[in-house]
Amino acid sequence: MRRALALAARGRGAVEPNPMVGCVIVRGRRIVGEGYHHRFGGPHAEVHALRRAGQAARGATCYVTLEPCCHFGKTPPCTEALIAAGIRRVIAAMRDPFAEMRGQGLRHLRSAGVTVATGLLEAEAARLNGPYLKLQRRGRPWVILKWAQSLDGKIATRTGESRWISGERSRAEAHRLRGRVDAVVVGVETVVRDDPLLTCREGRARRLASRVVIDPRLRIGLTSRLVRTAGRYPTIVACGDGFIPGKRAAALRKAGVELIGLGARRAGGLELGTLLDELGRRRMTNIMVEGGGRTLGAFWDAGLADEAVIFVAPRLIGGAEAVTSLAGVGPARMRQLREPLEAADRPMGRDRMYRLVFTDPDRI
User: Per residue in 38-63, pLDDT tens?
Assistant: First the structure.
């Protein structure tokens, strides 16, 4: 099962909104076939493994990281393929919470005489597919906060300058992360100050990520690069309901920008939970919030962040008025801090990249 989980992880960023799935087929003490779900719309992990196993699959045991599907979707049911191949036993790490599954695949296998067991390395399988589980159970995408900062926690100088805090390797990795998500989210201040393009310029993107701007009062410039390229890249502006009608909104729509009207919170911001609900309805699995500090802080204060990816450069900016990464309200007491369930770091040139996971998929 650990081998199956390692295989499944190879599909990260290519299979969404499907889950990452790996499969290993064992006969006696020998692996006779293995595979994983490579891309959305392509053959599932079980199909790849069965093709590798061939006739050796008859009477063998199938280890799979998620309950095999029993419905027709982009591909035929995997349960039928397993039964036809003569698999004797199926061990699934966990059940699939998808509405058309929820144990039906396992029941189908049992009715055909296949021995079925679940729960082996279930927690590890759930952590691997946290974004998929959240989308299925909560109807919302997995929220990743991403920023680059100096060693003293600043993401820009007191004048707002931020290019470039991190090094080339960190920036290249950040672009690769963009290529794995469904949307990149920023606040309008970032658009006004930096005029970003928010596209993936490293590696091969699975799809064109939507650019989402949180803009309560619809201040985005009609000549900004985001608006000028809205015809080529999906661009969404979330604003207050009262700004949807009017000439400015009409001009943005004409340029190819999609507007989403949201209710306002007391502090003058927008209902971020409502935005996540809407992105979930569009089957977005992962979104990445890139700033600025107030937008990152708003997601953090609202408890909406599932994960954080932080690039820390060995530089000092200083200054009480320099922008901090989570420029929200923050907790009043240390005991109120959210402790990460997972924490990992690795070098990124002279920088260091930290990944913190805060959401337990088992409790979604």
Answer: 998 899 999 999 999 999 999 999 99
